């Protein structure tokens, strides 16, 4: 009698394990997508501390977090959901009743799992490069996603008896190259170094009379870099002391743009009809406007966004949209 060789445990449990990992990834990315669309900043795990939470905010508000105008997490959710479907579809077919269909589905879905896991691992590798080399931050969500991708790839490779190793290498080469080229193409604009010749020239000087207590209306719009810098300044507790009648304060607002400036913690030092500075401004001994207070130090005068980025320790993208002649 010939004893039938038992199926290795990893072959029996690889598909459920892949589905479980992909399911967790789908839930996490769905959460990130909802938070992004709602305009909220997702929180990191409490154990990571305040510094990690701030880094998460920087990463998830960076230009790399948006693709084709949509949250990157949305595409991640779709990818994870597809992996769940690929992993579980053959298990829905009873092998004793329809062995041929079960076998065909397993062969097809194993190749789809392999291609998907390779693509996700390559893309995650690029994001890890961006995380530590470009943004210089720590994001638990990003690292967890990379670990999920590598884990699924490992389970896919070990989860069945691949008869043709050359097929695996060929698939890895083709899918990897296509994914890398596609990724670089998608982020080509983000990866471009700052080019002041293409920056939007903005009108800094105000026109007409200021609105009492308000000043002049901000006429510029904000890019993602301006918004990310403004959020960073808010998170580190930076303050800007201004006066509504001050044209230089308006110039600083124009550099940020309307959307980004809404995040700036600005303190009005000259309330209408008041005969002296606001108490907070007097306590800070403000002598000119605008004056920035960043990390315990004061910086007087209009600052370019690059200067503010350097002073505040901002590590995100600096391809600022608004670029006046004065700072070229």
UniProtKB/TrEMBL annotation:
The chain crosses the membrane at residues 12-34, 68-88, 108-129, 135-156, 168-188. It is a multi-pass membrane protein. The keyword Cell division does not apply. CDD domains: VKOR_1. Its main location: membrane. It comes from the Bacteria. Residues 11-160 form the Vitamin K epoxide reductase domain. The keyword Oxidoreductase applies. Keywords: Disulfide bond, Membrane, Oxidoreductase, Quinone, Redox-active center, Transmembrane, Transmembrane helix. Pfam families: VKOR (PF07884). It is found in: Membrane. GO terms for molecular function: oxidoreductase activity; quinone binding. Gene3D superfamilies: Glutaredoxin, VKOR domain. GO terms for cellular component: membrane. Belongs to the VKOR family. This is Membrane protein. It comes from Chroococcidiopsis cubana SAG 39.79.
């Amino acid at each position: 009698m010939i004893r039938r060789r038992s199926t290795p445990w990893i072959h029996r449990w690889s598909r459920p394990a892949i589905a479980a990992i992909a399911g967790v990834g789908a839930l996490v990315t769905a959460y990130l997508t909802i938070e992004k669309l709602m305009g909220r900043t997702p929180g990191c795990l409490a154990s990571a501390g305040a510094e990690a939470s701030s880094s998460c905010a920087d990463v998830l508000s960076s230009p790399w977090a948006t693709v084709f105008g949509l949250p990157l997490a949305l595409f991640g959710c779709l990818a994870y959901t597809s992996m769940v479907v690929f992993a579980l579809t053959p298990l829905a077919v009873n092998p004793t009743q329809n062995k041929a269909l079960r076998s065909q589905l397993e062969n097809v879905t194993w190749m789809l799992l392999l291609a998907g896991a390779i693509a996700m691992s390559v893309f995650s590798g690029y994001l890890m490069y961006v995380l530590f080399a470009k943004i210089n931050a720590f994001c638990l969500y990003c690292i967890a996603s990379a670990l999920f991708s590598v884990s699924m790839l490992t389970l896919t490779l070990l989860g069945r008896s691949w008869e043709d190793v050359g097929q695996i290498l060929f698939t890895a080469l083709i899918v990897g190259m296509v994914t890398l080229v596609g990724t670089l193409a998608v982020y080509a604009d983000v990866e471009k170094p700052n080019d002041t010749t293409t920056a939007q020239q903005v009108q800094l000087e105000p026109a007409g009379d200021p609105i009492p207590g308000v000043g002049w209306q901000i006429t510029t719009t904000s890019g993602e870099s301006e918004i990310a810098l403004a959020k960073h300044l808010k998170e580190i507790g930076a303050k800007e002391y201004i006066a509504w009648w001050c044209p230089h304060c308006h110039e600083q607002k124009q550099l940020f743009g309307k959307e980004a400036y809404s995040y700036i913690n600005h303190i009005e030092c000259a309330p209408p009809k008041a005969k002296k500075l606001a108490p907070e401004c007097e306590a800070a001994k403000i002598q000119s406007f605008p004056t920035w207070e960043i990390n315990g130090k004061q910086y007087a005068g209009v600052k370019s966004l690059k200067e503010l980025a350097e002073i505040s320790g901002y590590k995100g993208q600096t391809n600022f949209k608004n670029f006046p002649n004065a700072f070229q």
